[in-house]
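Appendix B. Raw example, untouched.
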Amino acid sequence: MANAPSLDTSLKPLTGEARPLREWLMTFHLTSVVIDPYTNESAWILKTASRILHQFADAATRVNFIVTAPEAEAKKFLGPLADEFLTFVDPDRAMVKQLGLTELPAFVFIQSDGTVPHSAQGWSPAAWREVADYIAETVKWSRPLIPAAGDPGTFKGTPALV
């Protein structure tokens, strides 16, 4: 389980100015996939993560990627996904530390009050489904199918803090 981050933690989108987490949570929850672009494990989950985020794109949650890299490297890793989804860069892993994550990729739901009721680390379809089910229930939205055809097999994530 991830920790509730400080609402003062700064989140920098690919385009625009960094703002404190509290401002990103004013209207919507955050549904985040946290990835490390320097690992195969985060690359393996991109298609699946994109499918899950698309499912919640019109719900009362801001779907996003948090990429542990500078802007140019995040854009290169995500390719066209960087234009499809809100993307935050976390090159110093400040948000990763605040969340207390130990493995990436991770799937994290941050409610508008700053709490983190559900999260999953590494790729376990059952664990990611639990997070998605909680999000769907909270925002009254349909659940994505997890796992779906083409999703990778279960794998352990890589260390979140290197």
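End of appendix B.
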